[in-house]
Design a protein that fits this description.
- This protein is mainly alpha-helical.
- The chain is 72% helix and 0% strand.
- The chain has helices at residues 32-39, 51-67, 71-87, 91-107, 111-127, 131-147, 151-167, 171-187, 191-208, 211-227, 231-247, 251-267, 271-287, 291-308, 311-327, 331-342.
- Helix 9 runs antiparallel to helix 10 (211-227).
Length: 362
């Protein structure tokens, strides 16, 4: 869970909680205070008849800039659009812009501004008594709080969302809120409680027929089983998530399920299966022309070879990952990989197959 990050102006609420936390290095020139300042700037009444068209153009321009990786420019465009929508009193449009602003700020790693935009969006939903937007808005805020390392605050926010969803009998909202409550609970180390929440969430998610949402919760369930040391149920949960994701061409959950299965199988000595899954992952990443995921595949190969004591092969894959990190200009990841490579011991490969673990020799 791959669907495009940005959609049309009127985005389905169920997609709004899928926040992508990719960090860009560009500094921001706008912040939460800028939003307040611009909302109070008067608009020339002589151009009001063209205002909606101009604001719509700026909104689309921002979406295109964001897709091109220029989130700083996108935020500037959206702030200009927001100023116009506010001046003409278009609450529905303001709601859409705040959603886009939160995404732009998150891409820039500016969580304070993102949270401000999400809370302003929630305020609009409360003003117009839009309960569905309130449910998904609270889940968005809770997800952001989790990313900021505030699981207790996130739990309270998800609980509020669940209470609203139950009061209006919103099946989709109950499934989402329960799944997110599981995440917050797992973050505090209470894995058995998280498992129960995920299982409850699945009963609602299956009712909606949303296979992407169901696969996401199954992956969450696999994470909790793995953390609690229950590898049999871990492999089962990830396996179902993988098949479901493949059937719906959900590449995000497919890659995530593979990652979980690699760790699970290697943890119980099933290295043959782990290597097969890694090859599947690498092929998928290359087919998608996704260098970031290709880098992760090389890194996983290197880590597994290191775990098996096959240091020459580990070194080879670390070097491939470092090369891609340089291509992506990811200095932080490059430094981490170089550190692992530097501290890697030297040892001869398995003389029989060159892939220690497959033949049982070390």
């Amino acid at each position: 869970m791959k669907k495009p990050l940005l959609k049309a102006k009127w985005m389905a609420p169920k997609q709004m909680y899928l926040l992508l936390f990719a960090f860009l290095l560009s500094p921001m020139t706008a912040n939460a205070a800028d939003i307040t300042e611009q909302l109070h700037r008067p608009l020339d009444r002589s151009v009001l008849h063209n205002s909606t068209n101009e604001a719509d153009r700026l909104l689309r321009q921002g979406e295109q800039q964001h897709l091109q990786g220029n989130s700083d420019k996108a935020v500037e465009s959206w702030l200009q659009a927001l100023e116009i929508y506010h001046s003409i009193g278009d609450l529905k449009a303001q709601d859409a812009v705040y959603d886009l602003l939160s995404r732009g700020y998150i891409h820039l790693g500016r969580f304070k501004e993102a949270e401000d935009a999400l809370r302003r969006r929630l305020a609009i939903a409360r003003d117009v008594k839009d309960f569905q937007d309130q449910i998904f808005g609270l889940n968005n805020i809770g997800t952001l709080l989790l990313q900021k390392g505030e699981p207790a605050a996130a739990f309270q926010t998800f609980t509020e969302a669940l209470e609203i969803a139950r009061s209006v009998k919103n099946i989709e909202g109950q499934g989402l809120s329960l799944s997110n409550l599981g995440l917050a609970t797992a973050r505090t180390g209470h894995y058995n409680q998280a498992i129960k929440l995920y299982e409850d969430a699945l009963s609602f998610r299956r009712q909606t027929g949303d296979r992407i949402a169901e696969a996401n919760t199954l992956n969450n369930l696999g994470d909790a089983y793995q953390a609690s040391g229950n590898y049999q149920d871990t492999i089962s949960a990830y396996g179902v998530a993988l098949r479901m994701a493949q059937a719906s061409y959900d590449r995000v959950n497919e890659l995530r399920a593979i990652d979980g299965l690699v760790v699970a199988h290697s943890s119980v000595g099933r290295y043959e299966r782990a290597f097969d899954l890694l090859q599947e992952r690498l092929t998928l990443a290359q087919g998608l022309h996704n260098l970031r995921e290709e880098l992760k595949s090389f890194e996983s190969y290197a880590d597994l070879y290191k775990q098996l004591g096959n240091y020459p092969s580990a070194r080879n894959f670390y070097e491939k990952a470092i090369k891609l990190a340089r291509t992506l200009e990811d200095n932080k990841q490059e430094a981490l990989l170089l550190d692992r490579l530097t501290h890697l011991p030297k040892k001869r490969e398995c003389g029989e197959c060159g892939r220690c673990g497959r033949c049982g020799r070390y």
